[in-house]
Write a structure and sequence with these properties.
Elements lengths: L4 E4 L2 E4 L34 H10 L7 E4 L9 H14 L4 E6 L3 H5 L4 H7 L2 E5 L5 H8 L7 H15 L2 E7 L4 H14 L2 E5 L6
Parallel strand pairs: 2-3, 3-4, 4-5, 5-6, 6-7
Antiparallel strand pairs: 1-2
Helix pairs in contact: 1-2, 4-6
Length: 203
């Protein structure tokens, strides 16, 4: 079994699935089998909710201030497990700040609106904007939803802003500076905060 809970640069992360509708050109999982203190982040078989809960139980979350659902896949690809395990973690530590790192394609993946329910469980939602327009987005993310992923991601983000107090959009510093600035404007149009992530640091 791959690591479900791992730490990286002092942060605590939960890796609950390897499934993802994107194959991003810059994805950190193309660099190796693990990051941080994890030995392996690739699952032989997808974890069950019981296995996720056991991993949570085996890690002392009682004094952890922040935890991130991220890992080597898109967390909303395991939507039911994501919601249940996040609620489980909150029950263990009601004060913990939970962040969801997502590509923002949850509504397409799950074929239903998901922003409101996710916002009720997570304190922070960070959406990967990646590039400032649909054509460039499709080229860099290589998603299974060409032509509609970009607009769906923006719509999802706007919905999250309605319900969640802390919504961010991110780009990775591998794209040109002019695209970063255009992406900043796109982000501002959704009402979310903007952040440029470091490819070298992996987050």
């Amino acid at each position: 079994m791959a690591d479900i809970v791992y730490t990286l640069e002092g942060g605590v992360y939960l890796n609950i699935t390897n499934k993802c509708p994107c194959n991003c050109a810059f994805c950190i999982r193309s660099k190796g089998d693990a990051v941080g203190d994890a030995k392996k982040l690739w699952f032989d078989t997808e974890p069950t909710i019981d296995e996720i809960k056991k991993a949570i139980d085996d890690f002392d979350f009682t004094k952890v201030e922040n935890a991130v659902f991220c890992g080597y896949g898109e967390p909303t690809n395991a939507y039911d497990n994501l919601i249940e395990s996040a609620k489980y973690l909150k029950a263990i530590n009601p004060q913990i700040n939970l962040r969801l790192n997502t590509n923002g394609l949850s509504d397409l993946i799950n074929e239903k609106p998901t922003a409101k329910e996710l916002s009720e469980v997570f304190d922070t939602i960070s959406v990967s904007l990646n590039d400032p327009d649909s054509e460039k987005y499709d080229k860099i993310t290589r998603s299974i939803y060409p032509g509609k992923a970009f607009d769906a991601m923006l719509s999802f983000t706007r919905e999250c802003v309605k319900y969640c107090k802390d919504v961010r959009m991110t780009v990775v510093d591998v794209i040109p500076k002019e695209d970063i600035e255009q992406a900043r404007l796109v982000c501002e149009s959704t009402g979310a905060k903007f952040r440029v992530r470091s490819y070298a640091r992996g987050r």
